[in-house]
Amino acid sequence: xPVMERIQAEVEGHPIVLFMKGTPQFPMCxxxxxxxxxLREAGAEHLHVINVLEExxxxxxxxRFSNWPTFPQLFINGELIGGCDITLELHESGELQRIVTExxxx
Length: 106
Hints:
It is a single chain. The chain has helices at 3-13, 30-41, 56-66, 84-93, 95-104; strands at residues 16-20, 48-51, 73-76, 79-82. The chain is α+β, with helices and mostly antiparallel strands and 106 residues long. The chain has one domain: Glutaredoxin. It has a four-stranded mixed beta sheet with strand order 2-1-3-4. Helix 1 crosses helix 3 (56-66) and helix 2 packs parallel to helix 4. The longest helix is centred in the middle third of the chain and has 12 residues, at 30-41. The N and C termini lie far apart (30 Å). Pfam families: Glutaredoxin (PF00462).
């Protein structure tokens, strides 16, 4: 499967997808670590995570797919939410919890 199709399938196949450096247990950058922490605090227990350090093709092509240059990148219900700063701002305002709750609603 071509990498752009694979990214599309990942984003559409899960309510919440975080493309990050490392894993939630072992984040490999501070921005990824803070994004995971904010998502957990907002109640996102079941994140689908793609470790871009283990997926060089995704790491190289995701910025073109999303039009967002940096990692992590958070997608909820197929839509790019943004990176670490936006995730933290949404968390501080309480908005992230609402978005996460809605993403998992039946």
